[in-house]
Amino acid sequence: MEPLPEITLYDEVGGMPFFETLVDRFYAGVAADPTLLRLYPDQADLGPARRRLTLFLAQYWGGPTTYSDERGHPRLRQRHFPYEIGPEERDRWLASMRTALAAMDAPSDLTERLLDYFTTAAEAMRNRD
Question: What's the structural domain count of the chain?
Answer without folding.
Answer: 1
